[in-house]
Amino acid sequence: MAFYQKYQLKNGKIKWLVMYRDSLGKQHKKKGFRTKKEAQLYAANIKVERARGREVTHKLTYQEVYEQFFIVPYTASHEESTVVKVKQDFQNYILPSFGDKLIAKITTADCQKAVLEWSKHRKNVAKLGQYAAMIFREALAQRLTYDNPMAAGLIKYPRTQPNHRPKGFTKSEFQIFVKALQNEYQEQLPRAFTFLLASGLYRVSQAGNFSA
């Protein structure tokens, strides 16, 4: 039978923990659930897996799962350039957040906290979330954890600020623009400005407003 308890963090936020015993009678505790329902779902998964004879008994860290079950087959099945980028993301962001934690103890709250931290330094933080979730899926396949705390819909990703910088002309659009200006305003345009137009160096984002 599982026992649930809520507790308060130093910042005032309320979290839930669950305590349960394995088939050998050893007590376990997992903290960091955002709601009691999340803790109950975790305990329910444990009960189902135990009934199937798939109780988690190994205690590996996130980094150990990454090294032992993920990165070697991933490297063998992907292009080198892709592997280099993925390894960099793990080394720079994901492993510093989760590497030394027991993978079966990492909660959705832990993952949400990591995502918010990554977003301070990286724009496409959802891509990091996808990479991080692959390790949890591998842990599930290897029966090293009971759930994937980064499963679809559990993590809220910060919105990326849109880029409002004006877009320059394409080469063909710019040539049409230059020709139209030269035909219409040839006498009014200063020589230096005409030279820039003719040489193709002027961008519409730099032009500003002008009139005849």
TrEMBL record:
The keyword DNA-binding is assigned to this record: yes
Source superkingdom: Bacteria
InterPro entries referenced in this protein's UniProt entry, alphabetically: AP2-like_int_N, DNA_brk_join_enz, Integrase_recombinase_N, Integrase_SAM-like_N
GO annotation (BP), single: DNA integration
Domain Integrase SAM-like N-terminal: 61-118
Pfam families according to UniProt: Arm-DNA-bind_4, Phage_int_SAM_3
Keyword set, alphabetical order: DNA-binding
A single MF term (Gene Ontology): DNA binding
Domain AP2-like integrase N-terminal: 26-49
Keyword ATP-binding (UniProt): no
Protein name, UniProt field: Prophage Lp4 protein 1, integrase
